[in-house]
Specification:
about 300 residues; mainly beta; 13-stranded mixed β-sheet; two-stranded parallel ribbon; 17 strands; elongated; disordered N terminus
Length: about 300
């Protein structure tokens, strides 16, 4: 196939699936080659040349990624490596080098203990997902993600995560941050993404108190989930009144009283407060017709 035809990424796109259920790709152009069917689970990334845009390698037995592992896939924008046997030491820093424009990368359910070095994706990576029962990622340090200037969504749920360095996410443009089902005891200081962060999930952690400035300077925040923690006092939430927040989830905590904490919110549409220990709940000035409160 000519280079001209290879570059035609329009209505000629087609789906290619390996029936063995171990290797799936979404092809970018007419005439893309199809790798041979393999009845055994993969232990490494296939080396065939493909003009694939998306590759699913989940539920295999891949233990490592060598340098330039995906060089043959010049159109590749999404790689799903969930449920393999990958370790942090087994992923070469140059595994994704070679000019491959990967924007979405999924590492869930692997044996990772730190965020892999993804230096070759600094200019392309937009979504990164790491987590699962086999992941033990206790902290995110400065320097691990700062160079990813296009990173828009980060999923670090179910990672046994306890700490995020205050500057760990600086330099990104994160709009969605999922930190649910971890071991976090304090709301992370992520003020350096306050102007871009739209959604943050902190449900099912170990957060029992909120610092006074925990939610200051979040100018874009729309959704916050603090369900299933051990919160008693949530007064610092009032700082979000200056944000365009529409949903605040505080269910399954130990909250006794919220008083007039929500008086100054003008965009709020939904609050979840069920399964707390509320004795008094007074709302004075929220008038949105979509507002709903569950007690």
């Amino acid at each position: 196939m000519s280079k001209q035809n290879l570059g035609q990424r329009n209505h000629f796109g087609l789906a290619v699936a390996i029936l063995a259920g171990i290797f799936n790709v979404t092809a970018a152009a007419e005439g893309c080659s199809i790798p041979p069917r393999n009845e055994d689970s993969l232990t490494s990334v296939p080396t065939v040349e493909l003009c694939a845009e998306a590759m699913s390698l989940q539920r295999n037995f891949i233990t490592s990624l060598g340098a330039h592992e995906f060089t043959n896939y010049t159109f590749l924008t999404s790689v799903d490596l969930r449920t393999n046997q990958l370790t942090s030491d087994g992923i070469d820093p140059k595994a994704f080098c070679g000019g491959v424009p990967i924007a979405s990368l999924y590492f869930m359910e692997n044996n990772l203990t730190r965020i892999p070095d993804l230096m070759c994706l600094n200019d392309t990576l937009e979504l990164l997902a790491i987590g699962g029962q086999r992941t033990a990622l206790p902290r995110v340090d400065f320097g691990e993600l700062n160079s990813h200037g296009k990173l828009n969504e980060l999923r670090l749920n179910r990672d046994q995560l306890e700490f995020i360095h205050p500057d760990a996410l600086c330099g990104t443009v994160l709009a969605t941050l999922n930190l649910s089902e971890n071991k976090i005891s304090l709301v992370p200081n992520v003020k350096c993404i306050g102007s871009t962060l739209v959604e943050i999930r902190l449900n099912a952690n170990q957060i029992c108190s909120l610092s006074k400035g925990a939610f200051q300077n979040f100018t874009a925040l729309n959704y916050i989930d603090l369900n299933n923690n051990c919160l008693v006092d949530v007064w610092p939430i009032a700082a979000l009144a200056t944000s365009p927040v529409t949903k605040i989830y505080l269910a399954q905590n130990q909250i006794i009283n919220v008083g007039n904490i929500f008086d100054d919110f003008t965009t709020l549409k939904q609050i979840r407060l069920e399964r707390n220990q509320l004795k008094c709940f007074i709302i004075v000035s929220i008038s949105s017709q979509y507002f709903s409160t569950k007690l």
